[in-house]
Amino acid sequence: MNTLLGKLTFDANGLIPAIAQQHDTGEVLMMAWMNRDSIEETLKTGQVCYWSRSRRKLWRKGESSGQEQRLVELRLDCDGDTLLLLVDQKGVACHTGRRNCFFLAWRGGELVEIAKPLVAPEQLYK
User: Would you list which residues are annotated within the binding site for Zn(2+)?
Assistant: First the structure.
């Protein structure tokens, strides 16, 4: 694990961006931040863990919603400053109840909602 951590370039806050992608379909699900502790926990447990900048603590994906991510493979880019997490997503990935966080598209000079929620957010976070 130290070999991996030594190859990573963290920002001034000790964070690195992580893109979560569904391992079998290639669907880009979300982007979040990780720090050393969240990377270590993810690799040890296989359950994806991020760093929540708003809560200022570790955030285990699905801990309150049940919409967990299981790590299939962790990849780093050529500069070591971005992670790609190939995951198996249980349920929806976005806190808005959508499968992924990229549901707004710039089309014809305006933002268009291209995916409706699959689950009501209030149902996710009872």
Answer: 78, 94, 101
In 9-45, which positions are buried (b, 16+ CB within 10 angstroms) versus exposed (e)?
A: ebeeeebbebbbbbbeeeeebbebbbbeebbbbbeee
The DSSP call for residue 123 is H
State yes or no: pLDDT of 125 exceeds 90. no
Residue 102 has pLDDT above 90, yes or no: yes
Separation CA 53–CA 63 (nearest Å): 16
The pLDDT value given to residue 64 = 83
Nearest partner of 80 among 1, 12, 17, 13, judged by Cα: 17
pTM score of the predicted model: 0.93
Question: At residue 66, does pLDDT exceed 90?
Answer: no
Which residues contribute to the annotated binding site for Mg(2+)? 77, 79, 81
Instruction: List binding-site positions.
Output: 77-79, 81, 94, 101
Tell me which fold the domain 2-93 belongs to.
Ubiquitin-like (UB roll) (3.10.20)
